[in-house]
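User: I'm curious whether this sequence folds into something compact or stays loose and floppy. Could you predict its structure so I can see for myself?
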Amino acid sequence: MAINIMIVDDLAFIKLLLKDLIEKAGFRVIGEASDGEEAIDMYQEKKPDLVLLDITMPKMDGITALKKILALDPGAKVIMCSALGQQRLIVQAIQLGAKDFIVKPFRPERVISSIKKALDIE
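Assistant: Here's the prediction. I'll summarize afterward.
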């Protein structure tokens, strides 16, 4: 069975990079959103197995989107993506229920191991 992943980031090149990385690892990207509002709507529509969610975005930030996604689905698996220097926000996201975090610039092996850990595979 395919693992369905949703990517949420306001930067197109980050979404492209993550999609390529995820698909090469054998997972399927079923949606891409550019802000927290889009992410919530898409989450409800697509019901992904996992969400990669950027912390800093326009309209609605990743922390707010995380709270709303977990309110809709307490079992949601979300990995936060952040730039260096956002430790306070990362800690807050983990306390709220994010499964893990990955730091930009991404290390491919770290992204895949984080996804596998969050989904409890391998």
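Summary: Helices lie at 12-24, 36-46, 62-72, 87-96, 108-119. The longest strand covers residues 28-33.
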